[in-house]
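Subject: Sanity check before I submit

Could someone independently write out the structure tokens for this chain? I want to compare against mine line by line before I put it in a report. The sequence has 398 residues.
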Amino acid sequence: MSHPATVRGGIVTPDGLVVALRPLDPAAPWVAAWRDLAECSLVDNLFYHPDFALPAAAAFGADVQVALVGDRAPEEPGLRLIAAWPFRRTRLRWGLPLSLAMGWMHDFAIFGAPLLDAAEAARALDALLSGLRPLAGRRIMLAFAPTHGPFADLLDAACARQELRQARFWQHERAFLDLRTLHPDERRAYLGHLSSQRRRKLRQTAERLDAEGVVRFETIRDPAELASALDDYLALEARGWKGQRGTAMASSLPQVAMMHGAVAALGSRGAAQINRLRQDSRTLASMISFVTRDQIWTLKISFEEAAARHSPGAQLIHRLTQSVIEEGTIATGDSCAPPNFALPETFWSERLPLAHILLETPGGDPFFGLARWLEARRARGVTKLRAWLRARRHRQRT
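---
Independent answer below. Compare away.
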């Protein structure tokens, strides 16, 4: 078997593409090419966009590398990237000396499709997989990868073409908004799936809130106002149960710095916003959202617990959905919510199917069967632990 040609810190594939690994570095000369790729990728991924990923590096990026596929070495002028995938290598996932390249996910990143140039996505994925073999090992894990849609179809085709095995774990769905195929009249009627009882309750709680003071829905996009609106969100979250448990963002300076960095970087070009319900100078509910091309990502939501009887969180998502429909520039929305989370599922009727996908790289993996078995056992244990923790949190809150 011939060895691939090498360049500085990477390899050259048979069709002339360069695959290289680089650490997360905001000063790297290839960041601009990474940003260009994020704007033309087959599937949008907010969390692998450099304007989100680089601010997250200090808080969550220890030992993370980015696999880059381009037409030349990353440091060369004129670079054009066609693939990027941040990942971390580990040998401890299963307690055995089996290495794994795991797609980078963290507390604020829960979608793991690699960035692939839409114009040549198949070539980009093939080069990424073949390059990862000598650079990162025999097996990889795509965390929170979509199991339906363009990327899933592309991955299945690549695995069939190269005879690669894959296995899916923790398959689940979360609330998703999809307006792509709807005509204008259908868009305006999107919330018609709400039951008459739900609509009546929303109307009644809105009237009760207005009786205490007129409530207005705001979307903050002005870069000059975003920082203070984010601070307002952080203070609101810290006053609630997350603050009491010490899990609010404000409890972690690195997380605060990360979110401020991401909001500033993406907000500078209109891709970050704070949506909130206000009653005079009081914030009843607030949400941190980002926009990539025509998709909104509703990443974080918090509400004033003293007003919980009026369902301010539900009121906020309801009005945000109405706003998205009226503006007409957003086609899809990812709730970024846990599976079976009733709040967004009430209003967004579509579902985004996801899974962790274990995959062997080209050339085969003699231990793939063992890795699959170990991951299945791990997944069952984690599922039971999560169920126990959810029940415990519910008991504590009630």
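---
OP: Matches mine. For the report I'm noting this point. Residues 215 and 279 are 5 Å apart (CA to CA).
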